[in-house]
Amino acid sequence: MHKRLTLLFGIVAMIVSSAAIASGFRLLIIPEGLLSGGLSGVAMIIGYITDWNIGILYFVLNIPVLMWGLTDLGRRFILLSVVNVIFTTLFMQIIPLGNLTEEPLLSAVMGGVLVGAGTAVALRYGGSSGGFDIVASIISRKRDLPVGILIFILNTAVVLALGLYNGNWDAAFYSMLSIFVTGKVIDAVHTPHRKVTAFIVSKKSNEIASQLLQWPRGVTVLRTKGAYTSEEKDMLMTVTTRYELAELRKLISDIDPQAFVNVVQTIDVIGEFRKKPLY
């Protein structure tokens, strides 16, 4: 029952997230001919060039990425991401194309705020808005690469393509501003660091550790002693990424809802970040 309620709550969060994202697209970004980041930006520039339905393009472009993620990421994460992409597409068909402001600067900033808030909610509750979020999740599991820089390069390429296509560099620069604001809102709502360290104190540390060892991450066991109870327990320490943080919360909550978890910011990791393969 608990797992079903958690999944249901996650689906509701994805619907709220998709409504915010679609509103940012339809009411602020698209009317000004701007771009968002990720695959949505690719869908927008194709839509501007061909006059095809941007919502449908957004859905079609996400299909291969979601299928790729299905083989590398958890089923729950992909399920919630699929829900988010589907409802974003539906809301983009329902929400009328409007122009809340005639000032492109306000459209860029507020559009970025809505899209960033929606994306952060999706990440916070165990899903994603598809596109580059899926790519980032896969890359962060397979390689310790600067995912943020990679996504920035991909987004910049999309924005430059817009400027080269229509010669309107104002729109391109406003799009870059919108993407920047989106990233800052995600950082503020979710977490500003792509790597975090979790310290987990639980009476079921062995069960939690066995589950964590199935991830491509290492786990360190530290023997601790409570100052008040003098009870000795094992504390687990593991470094993960912000894309896996929601999954980590769920894993711990399912095994031991009474566990004490302290998640701290990690500026950098020196040494082996990914768990070494067993073969």
Describe the structure in your own words.
- A hairpin with a 6-residue loop joins strand 2 and strand 3 (232-241).
- The protein is an alpha+beta fold and 279 residues long.
- It starts with a helix and ends in a 14-residue tail after the last strand.
- The chain is 62% helix and 10% strand.
- The chain has a four-stranded antiparallel sheet.
- The longest helix is centred in the N-terminal third of the chain and has 28 residues, at 2-29.
- It has helices spanning 2-29, 38-50, 54-72, 75-94, 104-124, 132-142, 147-166, 169-189, 205-212, 245-255; strands at 195-201, 220-225, 232-241, 260-265.
- Helix 1 (2-29) runs parallel beside helix 4 (75-94), helix 2 (38-50) packs antiparallel against helix 3 (54-72) and helix 9 packs antiparallel against helix 10.
- It folds into two domains: 2-189, no CATH class; 195-265, 2-Layer Sandwich (Alpha-Beta Plaits), CATH 3.30.70.120.
